[in-house]
Structure prediction request, 371 residues.
Amino acid sequence: MKRVAILTFINTENYGALLQAYALSYICRHMGCTTHFLREQIAPLRGLPLVKNIVWTWVRSLLGYSKRRAKTKAFARKFLSVDECRDWNTLNRRYDKFIVGSDQVWNPFIIRNNMDFLLKNVTDNNKKIAYAASFALRDLPLEYKEVFSRYIGDFAHIGVREDAGLKILSNLGIERGVHNIDPTLLLTAHDWSQLCQDVTPSTPENYLLCYLMPGNKSNHLIIDYAKRLAHKHNLQLVIIGEREYKALFSNDYVVTAGPVEFVHYFAHASMVLTNSFHGTCFAINYQKPFWSFVWSNRTADNRNSRIESLLAMLGVASRLISVDASMQHIVNEKENEAIDFANVQMLLDTKRNESLTYLTTAINYANSVAN
Prediction:
């Protein structure tokens, strides 16, 4: 039985990050592996940032955040087994494979100088696997290219999540990259429904689910559009992901859902609007009529390639709506277009099989050190 260590973002309440981690571990365990997550190294807050974080967390907790946090911690304890060891000599002996991914584990604006996500300290290159690792950018900043090229080039298997990631690898002189689908798409809708079969949050009978990334500049425009669309189709509105204080002014906002309840809301929605990559993944997996939104900007940390690549891969690029600061409201001329989910499912099944084959091959690749 292979012993697999996974490096990804789990010290978070972000639904997508936690669920992709769960999915990758789930698949590895079904391949006969034992899996543990390595705790990512995060520089502790100090001074004024620490004080602000404490105050903000306290305020959020009064508005429902404490319930969401408790559910998230319970989910992590149940499904995300963590190895707290921080000694790489011990870890190198303990594990047969190290998998980095998925999520934005190679986004330099997030990991900065944390070389753990590049497996710098893993001594056997044959143990190094990237699965659906995401830069989330169209190009890598110049100051990171040398170090990324050096360490990523050591990986025995390199899988990235977006087409833009393959181009970045090529620009680094690495031509061995493979396009993987996000771990959340490795599981079928049936698999996900098994996870939330015992969870029954109080949901409307027919509703439009609006899942937003908190603080995104496009949120107010999407919510305005969601209200109009919900009224048109006689649906109630459910909004997840926005700031907790907004629940004080409207019953449309859900601020206490844990990761399992989050999946339940997607499973039973009549329609989905989202500016989240993983929100898009779950809408597609559950075959929900959906629209995905990206904020149009040309800054270096533009992360739109994640959603753009996914929709193009599955033949539904027309479901993307670009939003910018000049817009007063969203106009969708394709609003009545239906999605050919039979074709989407065919493409998804093909990519799922390719990605599972890649992962199986990578995990079973012979190590230079005998198991």
Notes: The chain has two domains: 3-186+350-364, 199-348. The chain is about 40% helix and 15% strand. The radius of gyration is 20 Å. The chain has a mean pLDDT of 92.
